[in-house]
Write a structure and sequence with these properties.
seven-stranded parallel sheet, 37% helix, four-stranded mixed sheet, globular, 11 strands
């Protein structure tokens, strides 16, 4: 692990989405220097599936040696963002560092992505990042060590990163474009950089995308926290960079990356946008027992009934994914597992308990509330003509 140097002592960090995952890991790393940390996130009450709240994260920050301010913030809401920034300045006297970590993800194609999910991703990833930055920048301009760090990828325009999930890529690249523009706009005044992981990081989002078995192919959020710490310790003329966690830490002299592995020695899954093709990522996940939620059936297999991810069941689940949303989840609150036999045998799940919902092949990310065992043809008949009511 990268050693703390004390460079962030007394600094105030405003971190979006810091109640869990990478955001919380960055908060704890800074807290060990004695930093002040604003936990700006939505989770005020315990979630049935996701760990932590803004208040438990704040307790951990203070236990690690920092000072914490927990603020309920939906970064799509301008008034909530302004109120949290005002509280941060009143409490700590200013803001030195902004970490735009909050993000939404939905890896579906154009026809399968409801506009509500498009709006969610654009609202959080692009608009939320821009608006939070805009609100915090006047305070950063008063700081002696001002930084903005967006957790977003390099602007890789290879079409493979658009074809399967155009909406998500547009939204995520919006965060990166904020770096490109603001770094130049505020050059010499504020350091503005992006950080992205070289490999998959074990978070709640990753578990949703790859299933329970994907964790062993991941690194822990600590590697991103260490890389972020190294970047935020640099002077403000270190700006306009699109950085990868492992590269940053190698530059700090770190050589042992096994310490960050969830399961040391296990092959790691490369992250998106770094030119490991999506099809290759899906194959690697499946080889080690995970179930990629983002995998789309290939044209060559669409007519093959021997492929478990093709045929009428996959078609049915494509339709299901296109109609589920947060409202359906709120009104249903159930996780379903379908153990199918017959011509199209396999295990499928429908999670209508968390986030905007998810569905796909394999075991559900958490224990199912209902397990239905049936013939695959009966499953198709059951959903025929009824999907619009989901």
């Amino acid at each position: 692990m990268l050693q703390n140097t004390g460079k962030l002592a007394g600094c105030t960090l405003f971190i979006t989405g810091a109640s869990r995952g990478i955001g919380k890991a960055i908060a704890l790393k800074a807290a060990r220097d004695g930093a002040n940390v604003v936990i700006a996130a939505k989770t005020a009450e315990p979630h049935p599936k996701l760990p932590g709240t803004i208040y438990t994260a704040a307790q951990e920050v203070e236990a690690a040696g920092g000072k914490a301010l927990a603020c309920v913030v939906d970064i799509r809401d301008e008034e909530q963002v302004k109120d949290a920034v005002h509280k941060a300045v009143d409490t700590f006297g200013g803001i030195d560092i902004l970490v735009n970590n909050a993000s939404a993800i939905n890896l579906t194609g154009t026809l399968e992505t409801p506009m509500k999910k498009v709006d969610l991703m654009l609202g959080i990833n692009l608009r939320g990042t821009y608006m939070t930055s805009k609100t915090v920048i006047p305070h950063l301009l008063k700081s002696r060590s001002p930084h903005i760090l967006n957790l977003s990828p390099p602007l890789n325009l290879n079409p493979i990163w658009f074809k399967n999930h155009t909406a998500y890529t547009m939204a995520k690249y919006g965060m990166s474009m904020c770096v490109l523009g603001m770094a130049e706009e505020f050059r010499g005044q504020i350091a503005v950089n992006a950080l992205w992981p070289k490999t998959a990081i074990q978070t709640a989002a990753m578990d949703m995308l790859g299933g329970a078995d994907v964790g062993k192919q991941c690194r822990t959020p600590d590697i991103m926290a260490d890389a972020a710490y190294a970047i935020l310790s640099r002077p403000k003329d270190f700006t306009g960079r699109f950085l990868v966690d492992e590269d940053v830490l190698r530059g700090e002299g770190l050589q042992d990356f096994e310490q960050y592995a969830v399961q040391p020695g296990h092959p790691l899954l490369p992250d998106f946008f770094l030119d490991e093709a999506p099809e290759s990522l899906a194959k690697q996940m499946e080889e080690h027992g995970a179930t990629p939620a983002f995998k789309r059936p290939s044209p060559s297999s669409s007519s093959s009934s021997s492929s478990p991810s093709s045929g009428p069941i996959e078609t049915t689940f494509n339709v299901i994914r296109s109609v589920i949303n947060e409202d359906v989840v709120k009104s249903t609150q159930g996780v379903y597992q379908f153990d199918l036999s017959g011509e199209h045998e396999g295990v499928w799940f429908l999670d209508l308990k968390s986030g905007a919902g998810s569905a796909g092949r394999g075991q559900p990310p958490v224990t199912a509330d209902v397990i239905m065992t049936m013939d695959s043809n009966d499953f198709s008949k059951m959903f025929s003509g009824k999907l619009s009511s989901l």
